[in-house]
Amino acid sequence: MRLDTESLRALKLVIETGGVTEAAERLSLTQSAVSWKLRRLEGRVGHSLLKREGRVLRPTRHGRELLEFADRILSAHDAAVQRFRGSALTGSICLGATDDFATTRVAGIAGRFRWAHPGIRLQVKAGSSLSVAAWAETGEVDLAVMPVEANQVRHDDLPLWTDQLEFIQAIDAEPLGDQPVPLVTFGEHCFYGRIASTLLDEAGIAYEEVLQSASTAGVRAAVSAGFGVSLMNRGFMTPDQCLWSGSERVATPPTVHYVVRAARLPLTAAEQSLVAELRGSVPPVWDEMTEPGAAMIEP
Where is the HTH lysR-type domain positioned along the sequence (predicted)? Predict the structure, then answer.
């Protein structure tokens, strides 16, 4: 089996944009050429990779799995091309990132970027969402990767991906009965806690904050241990977690938008290269899960 990079890039862009039209524009190809690449890729792996939801194309289970490999293959391919083509870029960049992105993706991105651009000095600074936003405002970082609410996305923000917020609990959590909801939060420097308290207040549900942790790992561990319920990204869920059993009693939480925000515009050539690397590391789209503990399945 041979998986060519052009077909993998077409798959990645179709999933990122939700359709063939914009993907074809980005690739400077016709829509029929992109569709042919996708059909050829499906033929080679022997599975359907995309499914249509209304007017949007979403990845199937096999599509998500292949996308994870495609991200790594394309990043390595592009870094190798850049390296041996020779990069004359120089300068320094300070990248701010929230804990979830810093701990899962920044290390690999930074390593590839340093290898491809040895003349650029890259520093990474991790913090909470509000802290990272503040650093971008004051110029303490040059670029910031962070989640924002839909009404906080700026016209010059560069979109990366979106994720749905959900109230999450441990699968084997004990029923709460009439007790206040034990709330696990990311602390006062993350806007998730404000959203959680607003939703619970509007629903007339009593709650008490039982733990604050600035790290994604800390919040996930507390939820998995059954210590409490947390409002967090659906993409953060682990196999021992599910949607909170009381989710139907509150309004649907919002979607968060991950963006790159620049402290200064226009971007330097070095910053443009880093943004391209960041946008090439977009995680897979997360399928809808309508019931607590529901598995992601291919229809």
Answer: 3-60
